[in-house]
Amino acid sequence: MTATSPQAQTRPVPQLPEELVASATFLLKRLGFAAKERSMNAYEGTGLHPYHHAILLVLDEGSAETQGSIADALGYDRGQLVGLLDELEEQGLIERRRDPDDRRRHFVRLTSDGKRTLKKLRALSKEIEDEFLDPLGEKERATLHTLLLRLAEKHEPRCAPSVQGSSGVLLPPTP
């Protein structure tokens, strides 16, 4: 009797019905779930989440400095944002201070540790994207991105191009 390798014992992946695979929205949903799962797993080793990364990006960009403006910029629930900011503050990545003119409002800023961590998270994000989009060439990636931005204009305006780069080309907000 011969032993079979673990690879030989794996079962084939069941195929989905053709009608589902023919649906672009179905594929977008499934790929979105796959991308989110891979991102969450990759970020797990950092002790942070992609949600934290987005907050650090907003702060680095300087477009929002109060808790409320950060929540609005990212579309986060204000209550959930407070918990995420607590986690970032505990790690020394951000600092919060009360607005002297309005004690209910808090200003938030990135610390030097936060800036260093953001640099690492940017590299991680690029690795995740490169791995996920590996089957596509540079031109295909650019085309996919352009098409996704066009869809975002209608369905998710927060993700649509809003900033003009130095080359005059509209650039999407950073994830």
Structure characteristics:
175 residues; mainly alpha; two-stranded antiparallel sheet; 8 helices
Helix content range: 55-70%
State the order of secondary-structure elements, H for helix, E for strand. HHHHHHEEHHEE
Total helices: the number is 8
Q: How many strand units? A: 4
Structural class of the secondary structure composition?
A: mainly alpha
Could you give a short account of the major beta sheet? 2 strands, antiparallel
Tell me what portion of residues adopts beta-strand conformation.
Answer: 5-15%
- Output the radius of gyration: 20 Å
Mean pLDDT: 87
The gross shape turns out to be elongated
* Spatial order of strands in the largest sheet: 1-2
**Ends distance:** 54 Å
Q: List unreliable stretches of 5+ residues.
A: 163-170
Characterize the structure shown.
This protein has 175 residues and is mainly α. The protein is 58% helix and 11% strand. It is built from eight helices and four strands. The chain has a two-stranded antiparallel ribbon with strand order 1-2. A two-stranded antiparallel sheet has the order 3-4. Helix 3 crosses helix 7 (112-132), helix 4 (50-61) packs across helix 7 and helix 5 packs across helix 6 (78-90). It is elongated.
